[in-house]
Amino acid sequence: xxxxxxxxxxRRRDFQFALRFVKDVIxxxxxxxxxxxxxxxxxxxxxxxxxxxxxxxxxxxxxxxxNTQLFKAAIDNIxxxxxxxxxxxxxxxxxxxxxxxxxxFHNSCTSKLIVLITDGMATDSPRLSSIxxxxxxxxxxxxxxxxxxxxxxxxxxxxxxxxxxSDRVYSINQYEALQNLVQTMRxxxxx
Length: 191
Prior knowledge:
Blueprint: E1 2-5, H1 12-26, E2 38-41, E3 56-60, H2 68-76, H3 87-101, E4 112-118, H4 128-137, E5 140-147, H5 152-159, E6 169-172, H6 182-190
Parallel strand pairs: 1-2, 1-4, 4-5, 5-6
Antiparallel strand pairs: 2-3
Helix pairs in contact: 1-2, 1-6, 3-4, 4-5
């Protein structure tokens, strides 16, 4: 599951680089055997249920497409939101709503991964550690790509809360450099 920061700090052009990255990563992956989904995230409304959050938007459900061309066409229709950066709540929605809706969620042989791309600090930073531990307990492995001034400490907490290592955190200076990580992320997904 790809989680894409679409907060106000992400320029439209940069968001397009993130979408292109997703398309390039899934090229060469058999979508009939690997369920892939995409969520863009920005704002969270405290008075709403997770499944009713318009700015934690699951644009492509896990396994919705088993055809690469249809998947890529759906990616091309995604428009960024703007607003804030509720990273912890986006991960929570992925593990509580999106992953359980996949027909492969309860299969112990199925790898469950999040690839998160962000360029800033989480608005809900205090919740990152507890939600990351929830993800770990659900068997969900998180990889994070921090762009520019992304908060590296938050990304370490998100990906490895129990040991604090950065082996699942990738840092790049600008969104254009996502292309340098395509093969690495494809390998992580297929591992």
